[in-house]
Amino acid sequence: MEKKNPQGFSDRIRAYLNGDYNSLDDIPVKTGGTPFQQQVWLALRTIPLGTVISYGELAAKLGKPTAYRAVGMTNSLNPVAIVLPCHRVIGAKASLTGYAGGLERKRWLLQHEGVDCRFAPIQSSLSMK
Q1: pTM of the entire structure?
Q2: Domain of 81, in residue numbers
Q3: 4: in domain
Q4: What are the beta bridge partners of residue 89?
């Protein structure tokens, strides 16, 4: 295994950026974290390509509808952000909020995956719901 490309990871990222959106799907990920964090990170992989979900909707899917801020905090700690697609989680009213890589990068990733972001305002990461 080449050290500069462990498990073909660099090749898979390049493939994703070149339009092979499934190239990241089967990368094994061991995140560590609390049981709740692991639950959130696992749920991120179930968000279909080209779609978004709000922090509140994701919290509700996990059976914890009031934990939207905890979902946001967990996303900010995501150890492999493109592989665990936290960029697909948005704020209430379709606002782009809270992405550790920067909101312009989040917008770019969503547009790259086919999400129409023309009407998604960028807001402070304090307004997660």
Answers
A1: 0.85
A2: 30-129
A3: no
A4: 53
Phi-psi category of residue 94: left, alpha or beta, with phi > 0 → left and psi -120 to 50 → alpha: left
Q: Give the angle subtended at the CA of 25 by the CAs of 22 and 30, to the nearest 5°.
A: 160
pLDDT for 74-112, tens place per residue? 999 999 989 999 999 999 888 888 888 889 999 999 999
Residue 24: inside a domain: no
Spatial distance between the Cα atoms of 89 and 71, rounded to a whole number of angstroms: 9
Q: Is 54 helix (H, G, I), strand (E, B) or coil?
A: strand
Distance of CA 98 to the CA centre of its chain: 10
Nearest to 97 by CA among 69, 118, 65: 69
| Structural domain count, the chain | 1
- Token duo for residue 91: 């704020």
- The answer to the question of residue 8 being in a domain is no
The catalytic site residues sit at 86
Q: Which two tokens stand for residue 103?
A: 């909101």
Q: Does the pLDDT value for residue 126 go beyond 50?
A: no
